[in-house]
Amino acid sequence: MQRHLTPLVALTMLAACWSASPALAQSSFVDLEIGYQWVDVTGNEDMYRTQLNQEDGVVLNDLTVSLLGAENGVFDRFRIDASGFGGNPAGRFRLTSALRDAYSLRIDYQQYEHFSALPRLANPFVDDGIVPGQHTWDRDRHMLDVELEILPGRVITPILGYRFNQIDGPGSTTYHFGQDEFVLDSDLEETEEEFRAGLAFNAGRWRGAVIQGWREFESEDRARLATGAGGGNSPREILGVDVTADSLGRTVRTEAETPVTSAYLAGGFGDHVRVDASYVRADWEGDTTLDESASGSLVSYRISRFFNSFEQSVESRTENPSWRGGLRLGFDLGSKVALDLGYEKRHRELEGWSLISSLYLETLNFSGADPRDITDLVDIENGYERDDEILDATLRFQDLGPFHAWAGYATRDITLDVNEDAAQILLPFGQEGRYDRSVDSVDAGAGLTFGGFKLLVDYRVDDGDLAILRTDFRDRTRLRGRIDIAPVRWFRLLGTYETISNENDDPDIVLDADTDHYAVDLELSPVEQLVIHGAWDRYETDSSILYRSPYDFGVDASLHTEDAELIEGSIMWNGNRFHLMGGYSTLENEGSLPFQLDRIFGRLAIDFTDAWGVAFEYDNHEYTESAFALADFEADRWGAFLRWHP
Amino acid sequence: MRKLMMVLGAVLLTLAVSGQVTAQDAVSDLDCGMCHEDIAEAWHLNPHAQARDDVPGCQDCHGDGAAHLDEGTAETIFYPRGAAGADMCLGCHQNTHDAFTGGEVHTRSGVYCGDCHKIHVDSIAAPALLVRQDVNDVCATCHQRQVRTFSRPFGHQLGRAGLDCVSCHNPHGGPGERSLKVDRTGDPVCLTCHAELRGPHVFPHVNGQAGDCLSCHQPHGSNNPNALTRTTIHQLCLECHSPIGGGTLGSQPVSTHDLMSPRYRNCTTCHVAVHGSNTSPQLLK
Fold first, then answer.
1. How far apart are CA A406 and CA A444, in angstroms?
2. Does A623 contact chain B (CB < 8 Å)?
3. Per residue in B48-67, pLDDT tens?
4. Min CA distance, B222 vs chain A (Å)?
5. Residue B253: its chain A contacts at CB < 8 A?
6. ipTM above 0.90, yes or no
7. What confidence tier does B71 reach under pLDDT thresholds 50, 70, 90?
């Protein structure tokens, strides 16, 4: 249960080193809180891990090191922020260091453990009470991003950067093969690396940068038949044959290179015209290979035969150039009026080739005759080309006494050409052709501010023509409002409201989706150290769209609802050496997936001296689905931490 | 008489101007520190005092302090708040951040620099001179409804491993889609972390072609598993894959897909490569 402890040990030692050098800077701030947590889960532990995934173990609650004004010739600003790791499924380390007129360095590292084992997703046996589903993963992601600026703020600033993003680990998936589905154990390792270099320039009013990056992506996904999964998901015989797999394995490898060019230019003319231009271009070129083999008692409708063994190899290549460029202009029309104009064009295209070579061994036709091996070769070329053109203008009125307001217009034109190979098309609907869509948007808003009172309202109307995806709206309206009342220091009442309506009255679609979300927050602070907070939050969505059942071609309405109410309350005392925080929240959804999620949390921190203290934490999560008890869990977490802030 | 008045006027104007200059020259940061002792003492903690050789002084932001020095009233000193305060901040910062140009969403809503940033900090604990130590708490001051969507059971967890509002949103950006950051390739910000889902694929599906991540996912938090926009998979898929009248992108599943059977209600049991595939036209692997 002790995961990712190495970063914790390193960070703690680092903090100790800093403490030994109090004279490093004119001013320094060091804060460390590290301890141990215990987790107890009852019920569906997989669902708990999917949602929260805390474990027993050492946890770094906080490490902050901030040094300013050092005169050591190495840095005059230095900062470390770190948290997580250990029993926490995620951790983050960020270091910034800078020496005026010399360099600026940023190192950012993030680590996540991704876990998913949902009871009903991809689970044909859910009605039999068998959980979780057959799609699970337990993978680690490591991300590192480093950027170094040399001579920051000077006329020319060289920039060097490096990025690393890796995800790896086991999982399970399914494979529809031989007229059954088989569970596979998979092992994935994918890595993206980027080196980048560029120059920024600073010519007073005008600044900009050009950065060239080189990305490499490598992926290997190995899948094997899971132990005991040879019988497949379906107990039914196919044409009198019990479909089984004795072995099944495949490996998919992808390698890709992507040069990335980005540039921006910002400046202005005089005091009243601002200019901001940007451009990004990325040219992906990738190659994929697949090697697969299987044996067993299997059926293929594609070749209308039984077969006992199978081998497949696939070679694919994708080319995907894309670019986007934009220009924004800002005009100050006097001290109270401003005009913003923007234009952006995006282009993305894909050319893909795939050669799929399949060899069916020891085949028989459905009459049980004509034994032979059969080779199936499919050569596919696919592609699409998409262009987006966006134009917007906003007029802003500011400082009109207690009022401010704005009004804006935007139009977006989308053109999509899809060219799909005939070999891919099973039924001649909706897979290729040219699709055009245009959306005109008008929005306006106004605010009123005086004393401790703020009111803000905005309204937006979007008018689209043709839908590309069926869920695209033709008409959309959105109304939002916020009221903030804080007449005295110790009282604040905040209310927000948003309603969104998406519609498409096309008789073959009939999309009608409404969302309302409103909330009220009350915050009381009768004395400076005490804050009492309460909130009520309601989220309602109700959508309907026609769909066609594939098995009988009947048309019906797809209905989805969410009717969720959240109530929470908390209290916090923040004294000199005594900090107490506690709260409770309950979230109940009565929509398509009815559930209730109750949370209790508490934290007590006591500083015995100026430098040393302890903290204790407790939280409880209870998740219940009224229609599916197998998903329920309850989890308690206790933590004890040592605080150190010299 | 007229000439005399002009001469007198010129003399008075000269005296006034020279007097003002004299007073302004006379005011120094030390004078300010006599009354504002705590602020003056903490100034060395401030990045503004560290970033340049010519350290900005009180009057660089607060204007001429002569009258304030004489009278000591709040009305006699410029306090940079609201739009006027933003103009002053942007006098230096406008070009150091390309996103400041172009009508940022907060400015148009009457939210200016001083609402989120606090220049005179008394601790160097808070990053970026924010008014609160946690950037998410700053956003939640107004956007508490959006922040609370992370309380839903499925989706991202705010604050975990540095996942902050500003990881995906640019607080100095524009409204709507322009409030979102983009990956360095110009792709949606989601792909900065979830790089393995970028593709492109020989057999693409939604991402980058006709829709994006938000076509199927609720990024903050969702009441539906896998942060999807629908509770059940077949419902999510069939809302697009039902070309009843044609004209939209999305194929028709073949008639063998019997939705009465659980195996067909979970489309992804077979079509596992829902983010695209290089090896299977039907996204089976």
1. 6
2. yes
3. 876 666 667 888 888 888 88
4. 10
5. 550
6. yes
7. confident
